[in-house]
Amino acid sequence: MFALLLFATAAAVSFRTDFEAGNLGRVETVAPDHYRCHVLGEVDQDKRNRQASWYYFRIDGARGRTLTIDLVDLAGEYNYQPTQGAIIAETPPYYSEDQKTWRPLEGEFDAAGPRMRVRVEPHANRVWIAHQPPYTTQNLAILLSEMRSNRAFSVENVGKTVHKRDIPLVTITDPATPVAGKKVIWILFRQHSWEAGSSWAGEGAIRFLLSAKPEAAAIRRATVFKIFPMCDPDGVARGGVRFNANGFDLNRNWDVHDPVRMPEIDAERGAILKWVDAGGRVDLALTLHNDEKPEYIESAPGQEHMPLAHRFYAALEQSPVFAPTKPVAPSTVSTTAGKPGRMSFHQGLYNDRKLPAFLIEQMTVSHPKLGRRPVAADRIRFGEDLVKAMAEAVGAR
Ligand SMILES: [Zn+2]
């Protein structure tokens, strides 16, 4: 499904997306070494809420040239309101010459288009350009196989996606300490496939929790972490935006039960509610996202979880990779009042069982505490700080 040769120009420069998460629309030649690249984007099940928030492509044969690349077709819709999209002046692409190390490019943004223009001078014959440093199902498979022999780690598959990929649920706890008395923390990473930063944080969280650090060992004795490391593997694999293979937004629809059209939500919510119904506690539940400029923690609707929310906020605010742009507050009941299928994770779980569920958004623009745009190492660090702050908020640290 990735075998798509998009365009090959004369002079042997070519644009390719035939690798995992690769995605780009039409490529036109404007002038020699100047290309107009259409971002494909995706719409939801009602052909609304178009998002052009992901592109990831390789350029072959451009070593020694200076290429001008215009990214176009960026406008879209968010919660039924027109938006300039995720690609704004402050979010030019990331660039790599080895598909591992990514650095942010400088961009020239024309809001009238809108159009993002970048110039690159490849030193390698193959270079990659993406909206965010990519994190694929292959990255996750490597992480999980590395952790498999750790006695504090276990993984089960709680369901299948639309395209029959496994939906893994990771459990991390000290098996030598009884579960009774442990705090229980649930985290969902990567509900939206463009938000690769969420997955890098997930990797950081899992690596820290399973590390030999004394602090991690103490957290393992006092907590059970239940982690969905990748909630939309279909979207990640195809280079999608925020919808599953049937077009459903996986961080809406938490008020809808539809195991056929949105099996991912059904599997994730089903695992949490099964745990609760079996008498399991949920001390804190979280979904982690990326956004453009905002960075914040949002509590479930209602006031009863606000004391926990304040402890969580106070602990996480200490992190050098978390710079909240607004105070913590309760969510509205739904993202779109009165319309079914519009509750996000924390709204839905509160609606179901009044659970202490939260949402975090992290910015993708230049980060005020870092003084630059975040890279994978910053997200990994955030994952460690996140699970420490969650343990602290529930009194397990
Ligand atoms: Zn999101």
Helicity range = 10-25%
The computed structural class is alpha+beta
Strand content: 25-35%
The CATH superfamily name of the largest domain is Zn peptidases
How far apart are the first and last residues' alpha carbons, in Å?
Answer: 46 Å
What number of domains? 2
Low-confidence stretches: none
| Count of alpha and pi helical runs | 8
Choose one word for the global shape: globular
How many beta-strand elements? Answer: 21
**Taking Cα atoms only, what radius of gyration do you get, to the nearest Å?**
21 Å
Structural account:
The protein is α+β, with helices and mostly antiparallel strands and 397 residues long. The protein has two domains: 5-130, Immunoglobulin-like (Sandwich); 137-393, Aminopeptidase. Helices cover 23% and strands 26% of the residues. It has eight helices and 21 strands. It has helices at 137-147, 196-209, 214-222, 233-238, 263-277, 306-316, 345-353, 376-393, and strands at 5-8, 14-16, 27-31, 34-38, 56-60, 67-72, 76-78, 81-83, 94-96, 103-104, 108-110, 115-120, 126-130, 153-160, 166-172, 183-189, 223-228, 284-291, 296-299, 329-330, 357-363. The strands form four sheets. The protein has an eight-stranded mixed sheet with strand order 14-15-17-16-18-21-19-20, with helices on both faces. α6 crosses α8. The mean pLDDT is 95. Residues 191-192, 195, 251, 289 line the site of zinc ion.
